[in-house]
Amino acid sequence: MAAEIHSRPQTARPVLLNKIEGHSDAVTGAVLIPKEDGVITVSEDRTIRVWLKRDSGQYWPSIYHTVSSPCSCMSYHHDSRRIFIGQDNGAVVEFLISEDFNKMNHVKTYPAHQNRVSDMVFSLETEWVVSTGHDKSVSWMCTQSGSMLGRHYFNAWASCLQYDHETQHAFVGDCSGQITLLKLEKQTYSIITTLKGHEEGAKRLDHNESVQPSFTVSGSIGTLWWDPVQRLLFSGASDHSIIMWDIGGRKGRTLLLQGHHERVQALRYLQLTRQLLSCSADGGIAVWNMDTQREEAPQWLDSDSCQKCEQPFFWNIKQMWDSKTIGLRQHHCRKCGKAVCGKCSSKRSPYPIMGFEFPVRMCDTCFETIREEDRTALATFHEGKHNISRMDMDPSRGLMVTCGSDRVVKIWDMSQVVGCSLATGFSSR
């Protein structure tokens, strides 16, 4: 059912400890069981499985439970051993797992959505289960009575969710690229604000700008992570980018992080080491150093002519006619945001302090201001070698679990890349 990987540790990279195989369809959720050598998985094959590590080093299912509809997501609360399963039919099912992780009893079924459940969070403090779905809504239900407390509809599929348990604020990402912040109450709610940024990120999707920005799609939000201590929200999207929203700073500060080559689908911020862990659909695993001074990426400026040489862009018919010249394509310098022509922005350079870990377009003026030390990487990139749609991390042991559409679950030792003293208490037998 699972293979133990015997590999010699190498410096500063994730070490694959185990592969768990056995699901017959995409694995849509995997969580590490705290203080146990165990993993809980849910899948499109309609099964919920609890895998425990045996003396042989292999993981075998101690619980194998089948439900009526494909499983789309889950939320596990370890202290109470309650697990909530989101399904393709819109229902959320609650189970209680026994202390020895060998038995699971059905508790309630909640009619949360009319379509696939995309994400959910259980709050023990309020006894609510908050969920988002492809019916374009976020709903919150009482786990004591099983009744619906409230629902809000969006203009697009609600794709992911984070929840602040102390303030009862919900962050909902949707497929249009927007993030909505709501204050949830027992029978009502209020919309606090809407965060927009991945629409601009979609314009940066093509690094060489071989496609005009107007023809690119908005960055559908794939994942969110909320850090309640520093009050930072991180969002990853289909535009391959990550945005850090400084909610606690109250100044609208955002930081752009670009280094992935595919849709960003999983995030985890490690408060102790000030590192951000991100995973993408192509198996990319990135570790970002957030304990450093970073600069905000500028907004792209609009202009009818190059802001360096003043040559007209191709839609500026009047200036083209007056100057008897052929219009040029518009590009943008990533460092200053100015609209420039290709001739005035022929240089490329990484600029990690602004979040650009790969070479991006720079105007000639900005390129000359970049020092060699400014090109020093502030992130490390690794290969997971499988599609990653979900990820869970146990910082206390330095462990990470990844899963995806290839039906494989991988368990990693991340202690070499996320800070040394975190990995304690893991049984490596």
Describe the model.
This protein is mainly β. The chain folds into two domains: 2-294 and 380-422, Methylamine Dehydrogenase, Chain H; 317-375, Zinc/RING finger domain, C3HC4 (zinc finger) (Herpes Virus-1, 2-Layer Sandwich), CATH 3.30.40.10. The protein has four helices and 33 strands. The strands form nine sheets. The protein has a five-stranded antiparallel β-sheet, with no helix packed on it. Strands 3-4-5-6 form a four-stranded antiparallel β-sheet, with no helix packed on it. Strand 31 and strand 32 form a beta hairpin. The longest helix has 7 residues, at 317-323. The radius of gyration is 23 Å and the shape is globular. The two termini are 17 Å apart. The model is unreliable at 4-10, 205-217 and 420-429 (pLDDT under 50).
Number of beta strands = 33
How many angstroms does the end-to-end distance come to? 17 Å
Neighbour order of strands in the largest sheet: 1-2-33-32-31
CATH architecture of the largest domain: 7 Propeller
Helix content: under 10%
Runs with pLDDT <50, length 5+? 4-10, 205-217, 420-429
Subcellular location: Early endosome
Organism: Takifugu flavidus (sansaifugu)
Main location: other
Keywords: Endosome, Metal-binding, Repeat, WD repeat, Zinc, Zinc-finger
